[in-house]
Structure formats: structure tokens, C-alpha cells
Write a structure and sequence with these properties.
By secondary structure, the chain is α+β, with helices and mostly antiparallel strands. The protein is about 40% helix and about 20% strand. A five-stranded antiparallel sheet has the order 2-1-5-4-3. A hairpin with a 2-residue loop joins strand 3 (about 85-90) and strand 4 (about 90-100). Helix 1 (about 10-30) runs antiparallel to helix 3 (about 120-165) and helix 3 (about 120-165) packs antiparallel against helix 4 (about 175-185). The longest helix is centred in the middle third of the chain and has 45 residues, at about 120-165. It is elongated, with a radius of gyration of 26 Å. Residues about 1-15 have low confidence and may be disordered.
Length: about 280
């Protein structure tokens, strides 16, 4: 059985952020009449820990789809924010966008307002700019708090692993490493985790532990000992000094053959983190 514990500080932070954004949104809707669409649009994701209850009436749902590519174009670096218009079923919808900026004035998302038939006045545009600054302040606070909570969780994970490994003996070493790879998979929501040792004398990467444990391991196992010369991806790990991200563009035919021979699914992306001793 798995027990999930919710951090009270995280709950309190999310509740405070939600109340602040709700207050700003309610003020927008009272101040700017006729709004049927009020959403937050981002290329990837909204600022960490930042929640905004969207307003999308049934008539505005297809309008949102029409506006999305225009809004995303305004999210590009250096883009100028100008009023937008789209037409749906013979009705012209007018939209305004305002930046939601986080630390270092980086625009993380755009606040989008739209209504049918009526353009926005200069006064309403100024009001939206004020509201976006208020929401930017909330977003900055949320991102900072989310970062601190994430760092605390990471520190707790490192401490938990260190305490467990300190009690490990030669006879329990294999089980302990399996426990660590399992914990890392759960903590980072990874499909696969593994621990490999570099044998520089033999110029090979040696598998020490993996999660999930394979049930149908071929003999010999192509993943157990892999020469650095067998694949450029593994060769790049021989002297790795810092974490490195790998994606589909990095995949080679040699690497694909090794994974396929092992009967494993092909990972879409991953990260390699070196464990260094004396700089190696």
C-alpha cells in the first residue's frame, strides 16, 4: 500500500494563490463588461503553483480555438501585443492580451480577454494592464514558493537515500540499489531508472541496478556490459561531469539496436546524472 502525504505548506500556498487570483479575476469581470472569455495562455505551462479559474462561455469555446494561434504568436520573444479580432458565425470577437511576467520580467503566459461585437476602450486596456501587473506579482510569488518547496522535497529525498545507504552492507548492497532506483522512479515520475558504473580500464558501462526489474532478461544481457565504443551516446557518458538531457535527436542506430536486443521499450527522452569521485 502506498501512502501519500500532502505538505501543509504547499496546500496553504496554493490556497493563498487561488484566493488572490480569484479576487483579481472577479474585479476584471466587474470592471470590464461583456467579457465571455478570460483565460491564461502559455506555450508550455502556466507559472509553477499559479492557478487561474478560466471563464469560457459555450459561445466562446470555438473562439478560444481561433484565438490560440494568434495569442501564441504574441508569446514569442520580442512580439508586440496588439488587440486581436476573429470572426465566428458572422460575429466579430475582440480580444486583448496582457503579459503575466515572473522573475526577471520573463513573460510566462498571457492573460486573454474577449467579448463579441464591442471593441475595448483605452480605459479598459489600461485597466487590463493594471490587472496583469497584479497577477504577475502573484505569479512571481507562486514561482518562488514552488521552487522553495521543490528544493525542500529534493533535499528530503537526498537525505532519505543517504540514510538508507549508510546502513547498507555487502550482502544487502544489491537490494539497496534496487530500492534507490525504485524511489527515484517514483519521485520523478520516470518510466525507467537505472544505475550504471563506468569501468574506465575496460572502457565499458556496467549495469548495477534498474527499475522496474526486467522479468525476461536475455542471456547474455546486452544491457549488462556495454562498451563505450559500441555507441556514441554511451561514449559521451564516459567522462560526463554534469547532468545531461537526451532526446530523440540524440538516439543512434547503435543505441536503438542495444535496447531492442534487450527487449526494452525505446525511451523518448531522459537525463543522465554523473556520480563523481575525485572528479571522475
Amino acid at each position: 500500500m502506498t501512502t501519500t502525504t500532502t505538505d501543509p505548506a504547499a496546500v496553504s500556498s496554493r490556497s493563498l494563490t487561488s484566493n488572490e487570483t480569484r479576487l483579481v479575476v472577479d474585479t476584471v469581470l466587474r470592471t470590464v463588461p461583456g467579457v465571455e472569455l478570460l483565460v491564461l495562455e502559455a506555450i508550455d505551462a502556466a507559472p509553477a503553483g499559479f492557478d487561474l479559474d478560466a471563464l469560457v462561455t459555450p459561445d466562446a469555446e470555438p473562439v478560444r480555438d481561433l484565438l490560440r494561434p494568434l495569442v501564441h504568436a504574441q508569446l514569442r520573444p520580442g512580439a508586440v501585443l496588439t488587440p486581436l479580432t476573429v470572426t465566428h458565425k458572422g460575429v466579430t470577437w475582440h480580444a486583448l492580451t496582457a503579459p503575466i511576467a515572473v522573475t526577471d520580467d520573463v513573460t510566462a503566459a498571457l492573460l486573454v480577454l474577449a467579448r463579441p461585437s464591442y471593441e475595448f476602450s483605452a480605459t479598459e486596456r489600461e485597466q487590463l494592464a493594471t490587472f496583469s501587473r497584479l497577477l504577475s506579482h502573484v505569479a512571481t510569488q507562486s514561482a518562488t514558493e514552488a521552487g522553495l518547496l521543490h528544493q525542500r522535497s529534493l533535499d528530503e529525498l537526498v537525505t532519505k537515500v543517504a540514510n538508507y545507504l549508510m546502513a547498507t552492507t555487502v550482502t544487502t548492497r544489491s537490494d539497496a540499489l534496487d530500492w534507490v532506483t525504485h524511489l527515484l522512479a517514483e519521485s520523478f515520475d520516470a518510466d525507467v531508472t537505472f544505475l550504471r558504473r563506468n569501468d574506465h580500464a575496460a572502457r565499458a558501462s556496467i549495469l548495477l541496478s534498474e527499475w522496474p526489474l526486467r522479468t525476461d532478461v536475455p542471456d547474455p544481457d546486452p544491457l549488462q556490459v556495454i562498451s563505450f565504443d559500441a555507441d556514441p551516446v554511451l561514449a559521451s557518458l564516459a567522462d560526463l561531469q554534469s547532468p545531461k538531457l537526451y532526446g530523440e535527436p540524440d538516439r543512434t542506430d547503435e543505441y536503438s539496436d542495444i535496447v531492442r536486443d534487450a527487449g526494452e521499450p525505446m525511451p523518448a527522452a531522459g537525463i543522465c546524472v554523473p556520480l563523481l569521485r575525485d572528479g571522475e
